[in-house]
Amino acid sequence: MALGPTLTPRWWSQHYAKIALGLGTITAGSYFFVLHDAASLGRAAREYLSFMAIGGSLFVVAGGIQIQLPGGATPRANVAFLFTGAVAANFLGTTGAAMLLIRPWLQMNQSRVAAHHLVFFIFLVANVGGCLTPIGDPPLFLGFLQGVPFWWAAQKCWPMWATSTGLLLAIFYVLDKINFSQAAKTGRGNATVPGTWKIAGLPNLFFLVVILGAVFVNQPVFLREMLMFAAAAGSYFTTKKPIHAANEFNFHPIAEVAVLFAGIFATMIPALAGLEHQATTLLGPNPSPGIFYWGTGGLSAVLDNAPTYLGFLSALFGVTGDQNIEKLLDQKAVHLLAISVAAVFFGAATYIGNGPNFMVKAIAEQRGLPTPSFLEFIWKFSLPCLLPVLVIVWWLFFRD
Fold this sequence. Notes:
This protein is mainly alpha-helical.
């Protein structure tokens, strides 16, 4: 599932559902019929349902809000927009923030849009920005479901968030300054959009509040997810059709994520169990935070960051020999911090690192805008721009 979109993109786009669901069915079938372990299947199914509930509902609600901005954005205006998006990701989720802001972002820069506009939007709004709350990014939400306190990430992750966000914005500013100067020479830097500022669909803010409030609902079982799906349905059926049309809203991006993640969550069941039971053998009795940082990060970049987070959380439980989250936070807080930061940050390294990356890419391609290929994304931007920032974060916070 990780290599398919890279090696055979056209074939994969036609058959990904068969492959993902087929592999997931093989794993699920072996657990149910051979191992008779329905409990593991049940846990994975519930985590998948919760994951899709928050991601899908935020996707739908964001699609019902239309923001129109004037074009001709300067580098400073772009930096301010990306910073605002990074902050908003913690309250709307990276999926919600990305879907809400990608269209006005492209609109602001329509006269000179370039690949770095798309890539740094993915870096900051669709990934790194959502590091401070469980709503922000799927891995942290799964951690919240495992018992990590809601405000723990905000209290512990803000230095890493501030460092990485500041560095990425500085790099973006340099690149955008060069692009802006080149566009000005050719007369492409000052285009404006008729109608200038416009916001429509504000009643959807009510449904957004319902979703955010549902995060804190623990009992009865599945009430949280039912509230989220109900809010999504209410948003979809009450939003005026011209707003959905202006946003080019459709369910294809979230449907693709739902299918792929069904396969990922199923096939990760034995991997999670193996990491937990063999953690001491694989990592040693007292592994450093750096091992968890680079291990979680490396897999988050080439797989998906949500199940990777669960995998290394299972490994950390294996190291402590106890699944008590309070004990883990007391003894291995810096290790859990390394897992959390790496899962969120490294998810920006490739298109397959996080669900919103797919969606942003699809929207840009629909508009015929310059979109780097999978490998171009890595060698033109992730390696020279993102990797140094990730190394600095490791050096400052997880080296010892």
